[in-house]
Amino acid sequence: MSSPDEVNPYRSPESPAAAGVPPAAPYPGHRQVTLEELDERVAALEWRLQRSWLFSSSFLTRALAVFGHFFAIYLIFAVLMMAAVLAIRLLRSI
């Protein structure tokens, strides 16, 4: 066992841990997460991924998921473009 006065060759002397000061939080409001919380979050993520069509083992299901996402984005884009064209035409008619 090493004594507290012994110098660790792998730690920078400028680091707060070497000076005995606890490290600052990486960002405001940061809290330490326990291993149990991380396990729960990973389990929830794995459960959601199993339900996702994008990660299905069936090619047809994956293809339909990609097509559905493409169609939804295209529909949103088309509605925005139509609204812009309508707005320009209404402004020109004034």
Overall helicity? 55-70%
Class by SSE composition: mainly alpha
- By DSSP, the count of extended strands is 0
What is the helix/strand order? HHH
Principal-axis shape equals elongated
What can be said about the biggest beta sheet?
Answer: none
Amount of beta strand? under 5%
Average pLDDT works out at 83
Task: Write out key terms for the chains shown.
94 residues, mainly alpha, 59% helix
Question: Could you characterize the architecture of this molecule?
Answer:
The chain is an all-alpha fold and 94 residues long. It has three helices and no strands. It has helices spanning 16-19, 35-51, 59-92. The longest helix is centred in the last third of the chain and has 34 residues, at 59-92. Helix content is 59%, strand content 0%.
Task: Give the arrangement of secondary structure elements.
Elements lengths: L15 H4 L15 H17 L7 H34 L2
Short description:
With 94 residues, this protein is an all-alpha fold. The protein is built from 3 helices and no strands.
